[in-house]
Design a protein that fits this description.
about 160 residues, alpha+beta, Immunoglobulin-like, 4-stranded antiparallel beta sheet, 7 strands, elongated
Length: about 160
Amino acid sequence: MNLRPLLFLLIGGIFLQSCGLFGIRLKLHNPNQPGRVPNFSREQVLLGEMTPLRSSYDVHYYDLSIDFNPEEELLTGTVYIFATATEDLDRLQIDLHPNFEITYLSLGDDGPPLQYTRKERAVFVELSLLKGSSFVLYVDYNGKPKKAKKAPWKGGFVWE
């Protein structure tokens, strides 16, 4: 019986295992400094953290309508957010880039306008809903999107 292939596999396996002991990982990004926690900006925390303002409702689907005006490099859009309140809520958070102005925000497209405040890309909408209530949040907006510096790798919009 030839043990040479078995011995080769055993030595190869030990070698690959030892790579992990020395910090050589093929598909894993190792940080430059161990134990260092990245600093997040206020905007990153607002957009990325799952807060009660985000988790207090369950979105079923979005109905988007966007019009492009290439001559003016302008976008005009509406979005219907179909959702259900998972808790009693008096405020919720949605996101919209600051380049876009909200021209109308309401429950349904014929409801009275809702009050809201903006911080960075976060929009905090004032409304009162009971747990289990289904609702449709209507947002009408327009603005000039940020131009891509190096599409598609650097975020933004390309008009050509």
